[in-house]
TrEMBL record:
It catalyses: L-aspartate + ATP = 4-phospho-L-aspartate + ADP. The keyword ATP-binding applies. Pfam families: AA_kinase. Keywords: Amino-acid biosynthesis, ATP-binding, Kinase, Nucleotide-binding, Transferase. Coiled coil: none annotated. Belongs to the aspartokinase family. The keyword Lipoprotein does not apply. This is Aspartokinase. One of its GO terms (molecular function) is aspartate kinase activity. Residues 2-277 form the Aspartate/glutamate/uridylate kinase domain. Pathway: Amino-acid biosynthesis; L-methionine biosynthesis via de novo pathway; L-homoserine from L-aspartate: step 1/3; Amino-acid biosynthesis; L-lysine biosynthesis via DAP pathway; (S)-tetrahydrodipicolinate from L-aspartate: step 1/4; Amino-acid biosynthesis; L-threonine biosynthesis; L-threonine from L-aspartate: step 1/5.
């Protein structure tokens, strides 16, 4: 059994959908599960729908219509006429979305987010499944929400592994090509949940683990895992081989090619993960596995933009020790701030974090009750694995360094 995951960039238009078929025909699709994300920038477009639902009802239908039009163009390019069943299936999904927006009574933003955002994946897999059937790549469409069960921590749900394993084991048909959605699950009340942005990679790992897959492959628009993001760094290099441990370190620090949760279940069963290019599917790409030395052994750069650096000091010059640190972390957890770097001294504490849920102002207000607080917004966090002096100079050149932390293998620098 092999698991393939295709991201939004791979299916941004009809040509991308056709290319998935080409990839399958070139590398084989026997005993294969395909996991697909929302098409192109659909997730961003649906986030606009959600924003309008809460803040600008007059623009709600216009923003939703843009999403419908985008997918309708792809349908027209893939199917010969509008009588094909795919058009009706997609229309039904959008009717379901409209009905939710019209009848929902919950004011909980995170709940509404998950109920709306998942339609991107449901629509994309519906279109792709029908297209593959048309060209005689017969497949079985699966609603992932019937197999991956989670708690109700909307927008970053935790998997119920026991129930998920049971459902996948009992309901999965390995004799046919299968296709399902990334990113999604459902809670005990069958409401849609999501696994966090970029969670489709994690979905692939969940299925890989539960199906005892021979391998999991993530198909990207890059040759494999690079030593840096080419959007921000020049002269990037392909990493041919990476150990699970090294890949987990890179993912933890924010490498965008791999979701942080993806590697742990695969490592548990020693299932190799490949990252390959859907533009050149027969190239070797990157292999991530057990007891593999990083090849080549070069500095690896990661940058996270739009972070916040919060600096605290005690009001009465008392030490910031266990009790204070526990209080700080309880607040960070309460306001769902993703912590990336911490640094403390006797009377000060600094934390660089990701304000994913826009709770920064509430957090700062709470912290000011006990600490002197300063906050730098829109800072950048650079992480270098296997650094050398030249690599550090490259990062710091022309920037103001606000915080710097070195360990034996990793340096992290916060800059303004």
């Amino acid at each position: 059994m092999q698991v393939f995951k295709f991201g939004g960039a791979s299916v941004k238009d009809a040509a991308g959908v056709k290319n998935i078929a080409s990839v399958l025909q070139k590398v084989g699709y026997k005993n294969t599960l395909i996991i697909v994300s929302a098409m192109g920038k659909t997730t961003n477009a649906l986030e606009t729908v959600i924003k309008n639902y809460f803040e600008n009802k007059a623009q709600l239908q216009n923003s939703l219509q843009e999403v419908k039009k985008y997918h309708h163009v792809i349908l027209l390019d893939l199917f010969e006429n509008e009588n094909h069943a795919a058009f009706k299936k997609v229309a039904t999904l959008f009717d379901e979305l409209n009905n939710f927006l019209a009848t929902n009574k919950s004011p909980d933003y995170n709940f509404v987010y998950d109920q709306v955002i998942g339609f991107g994946e449901l629509v994309s897999t519906t279109i792709i499944s029908d297209y593959l059937n048309v060209i005689n790549l017969k497949n079985n469409w699966i609603d992932v929400r019937t197999q991956i069960k989670t708690d109700s921590y909307y927008r970053r749900a935790n998997v119920n592994w026991e129930e998920t394993q049971s459902l996948i084991s009992s309901k999965f048909n390995k004799t046919i090509l299968n296709i399902t959605q990334g990113f999604l699950g459902s809670d005990s009340n069958n409401f849609t949940t999501t696994l966090g942005r970029e969670g489709s990679d994690y979905t692939a790992a969940i299925y890989g683990y539960c199906l005892n897959a021979e391998s999991v492959t993530i198909w990207k628009d890059v040759p494999g895992v690079l030593n840096a993001d080419p959007r921000y760094f020049e002269n990037t290099q392909l990493l041919n081989k990476i150990s699970y441990r090294e890949a987990i370190e890179l993912a933890f620090y924010g490498a965008s090619v791999i979701h942080p949760k993806t590697l742990q279940p695969l490592q548990g069963k020693e299932i190799p993960l490949y990252v390959k290019s859907f533009l050149n599917p027969e190239a070797s790409g990157t292999r991530i596995g057990k007891n593999v030395t990083l090849e080549p052994m070069i500095p690896c750069f990661i940058v996270k933009k739009n972070q916040v650096l919060i600096s605290l000091s005690s009001l009465d010059f008392s030490y910031i020790v266990e009790e204070n640190i526990s209080h700080i972390f309880n607040l960070l957890h309460l306001y769902k701030m993703k912590v990336d770097v911490i640094q403390n001294s006797a009377i000060s504490f600094s934390v660089c974090a990701d304000n994913l849920f826009n709770n920064l102002e509430k957090l700062l207000h709470h912290l000011k009750a006990k600490f002197k607080v300063t906050c730098d917004k829109n800072v950048s966090l650079y992480t270098i694995r296997h650094y050398n002096e030249n690599a550090i100079n490259q990062i710091e050149d022309g920037k103001t360094v606000l915080l710097k932390q070195l360990t034996q293998e990793t340096v992290q620098v916060v800059t303004k």
